[in-house]
From TrEMBL:
Domain Rhodanese: 291-372
Keywords: ATP-binding, Nucleotide-binding, Nucleotidyltransferase, Transferase
GO terms for cellular component: cytosol
GO molecular function: ATP binding; nucleotidyltransferase activity; sulfotransferase activity; thiosulfate-cyanide sulfurtransferase activity; ubiquitin-like modifier activating enzyme activity
Protein name (database record): Adenylyltransferase/sulfurtransferase MoeZ
Statement: the UniProt record of this protein carries the keyword Ion transport: no
Superkingdom, natural source: Bacteria
Gene3D superfamilies: NAD(P)-binding Rossmann-like Domain, Rhodanese-like domain
InterPro entries for the chain: Rhodanese-like_dom, Rhodanese-like_dom_sf, ThiF/MoeB/HesA, ThiF_NAD_FAD-bd, Ubiquitin-activating_enz
Length: 377
């Protein structure tokens, strides 16, 4: 297929420190000072400072990208540290954007980091994306992926995408309006979203940290190739990783028949069938409720998780059983039902299902991990 034109025009010059830091890259055949100057002039927006965003941010910063935007509305949790390697233990409780910005500044002071501690939505996506040359998507849910894809497609921005679940990963490039009739977007890979609950989250299924590192490094490589015009980008090709076998496979992607370019942003939660969020209670609020006695505590994890540790006085109703028949699983419950799981993801779905059949139910925010040792566990 051949390379594509560089996305970014080069900066006027590199200062001595930039040139020294980039010496090994400048020495690469075909890269040179002009390629490094393109990186210095580039503006890259990274969606998510999590498992994929961490290596992307680190490698783009070390490579000398001039402006890096970070979009994430979450805070650092202790359970993130296993794979979100841009954050440190001291960052727990801090906004991920601030933690990432500090780490980048310590690594490469030349990089300008723009913190966007907001939730990406159709009200802010187009204006935000328009400030950048390309988008790198490390998000972990379908509604945000479709939103990011569509905003990039409307603005004709190249869009690097990756995903990881358990031991497997995928990475590719989408670019609606790409040169040489190579226009592709996320809807060519996933024309319609999966049914709600069909694909487990990382919190539910688990994820190998080093698979995040591998896919994240590939995403950063694709961004560098697009910025500089070097090599053959993964446009029209999807690379898949099986980390357990140590193998890569590739399949070709073509424009879906009859697909028309995206013209406007839509309600992506409705499109993906996302249910309205169930109310939550904090660990402190749960402690007060339990003192009153007017609460029914339900663990929706699996039996092996419950056996490893659970809250006193609870009852185990795995999520799959509860979702099959919410009313039958719990019967009538005059007391408030507080559903909990490991981190709050599965319990939110459980609480929504219970409320849909008329029960008064909430989810424990942060899950079992949020309850201090000795506080009923």
């Amino acid at each position: 297929m051949g390379s594509l034109p560089p996305v970014v025009q080069p900066a006027d010059r590199l200062d001595d420190d930039q040139a020294e830091r980039s010496a090994r890259t400048i020495a690469l055949p075909g890269f040179g000072a002009i390629g490094q100057a393109r990186l210095a002039a580039a503006r890259v927006l990274v969606l998510g400072a999590g498992g994929l965003g961490s290596p992307v941010l680190q490698y783009l910063a070390a490579a000398g990208v001039g402006v890096i935007g970070v979009v994430d509305d979450d805070v650092v949790d202790r359970s993130n540290l296993q794979r979100q390697v841009i954050h440190q233990t001291a960052s727990v409780g801090e906004a991920k954007t601030a933690s990432a910005a500090r780490a980048i500044a310590a690594l490469t002071p030349h990089v300008t980091v723009r913190q966007h501690a907001v939730r990406l939505d159709r009200g802010n996506a187009l204006a935000l994306f328009a400030e950048y040359d390309l988008i790198v998507d490390g998000t972990d849910n379908f509604s945000t992926r479709y939103l990011a894809n569509d905003a990039a497609a409307i603005l004709r921005l190249p869009y690097v995408w990756g995903s990881v679940l358990r031991y497997d990963g995928q990475v590719t490039v989408f670019w609606e309006g790409a040169p040489h009739d190579r226009s592709l977007d996320y809807r060519d890979l996933h024309p319609v979203p999966p049914a709600p609950g069909e694909v487990l989250s990382c919190a539910e299924a688990g994820v190998l940290a080093t698979a995040c590192a591998t896919i994240g490094a590939m995403m950063a490589t694709e961004a560098i190739k697009l910025i500089t015009g070097l090599g053959e980008p993964l446009l029209g090709r999807v690379q898949t990783l099986d980390a357990l076998s140590g193998s890569w496979a590739e399949f070709r992607l073509r424009r879906a028949p009859g697909r028309v370019p995206v013209a406007e942003l839509i309600d992506y939660e409705e499109f993906c069938g996302v249910e309205p969020a169930a109310p939550t209670v904090t660990a402190g609020e749960l402690a007060s409720l339990r003192q009153s006695g007017a609460v029914r505590l339900v663990d929706v994890r699996e039996p092996h998780e419950h056996e490893a540790g659970h809250l006193d006085g609870d009852e185990l109703v795995p999520l799959g059983i509860l979702l099959d028949d919410p009313r039958g699983a719990l019967g009538d419950s005059p007391a408030l039902v507080v559903a909990y799981c490991a981190t709050g993801v599965r319990s939110a779905r459980a609480a929504s299902a219970l409320r849909a059949v008329g029960l008064d139910a909430v989810s424990l925010a942060g899950g079992f991990a949020a309850v201090p040792a000795g506080a009923g566990r």
